[in-house]
Every structure is written in structure tokens, then in C-alpha cells.
């Protein structure tokens, strides 16, 4: 189980972002899908007991500088997922690249088709 209950992400055009998230979210651990009017949800397991990532349409949505970051198990996993986001239509992709703090931090930064900022990273323990 993920350490959060759920995320409700707003987008301007649900149908425009659906192929992107339908490709990415199962790779991040959300393999089950539920669609409703103006929204779709990708879940870890059965609702409502499992974490889920919701994408909801809001025609007035304006992306901001908020970023959602997903943890990966290795640098190789970040690189593999970076290829998926490229093929799924991510924008403004930066990386994957290593940043050295007190340990290795390997990340790719990108935007979904609605302009929301996302990241996939691995941090060495």
C-alpha cells in the first residue's frame, strides 16, 4: 500500500490526457482502472481500501509549480520509465540525470499533456 490515500489531479481535457496516464500509471503501481463522468481513477487494488490516483476534468484548470514525484526502485527503473513518458507524450522532459547531494539522486522531470509537473526519481539510501 502507498503511504497516501489518494491524489485528485485536475486537468483541462480528460480525453487528451487519458492515453498518457493509462500508459504511465500502471507502470507506477496503479494497474486497475475505473472511469466515471469527467474522471478516471487508477488504483493499486480494490476501492476504497487501496491507494488511487484520480484524474478529474476541470476546464478552468491552470497548471502551477506544484510537482508530484514518484519513487522508483533503481536508476534503471527511472530510465525505463523515462522512455515510457517520452512515448506517451510527456512535455518539457528534463533528464534522466544524476544529481549529487549527500547521495545519488537520479530523476526525470516532465509535464503531462495538461501542463502538470511530475517527476520520477530514485534516491540511493
UniProtKB/TrEMBL annotation:
Source organism superkingdom: Bacteria
Keyword Cell inner membrane appears in the UniProt entry: no
A GO term, aspect molecular function: metal ion binding
Keywords of the record: Metal-binding
Alphabetized InterPro entries for the sequence: Fosfomycin_Res_Enzymes, Glyas_Bleomycin-R_OHBP_Dase, Glyas_Fos-R_dOase_dom, VOC_core
Occurrences of domain VOC (ranges): 3-123
Listed PROSITE patterns: VOC
Identification of the protein by name: VOC domain-containing protein
Organism whose genome encodes this protein: Brevifollis gellanilyticus
Taxonomy of the source species: Bacteria, Pseudomonadati, Verrucomicrobiota, Verrucomicrobiia, Verrucomicrobiales
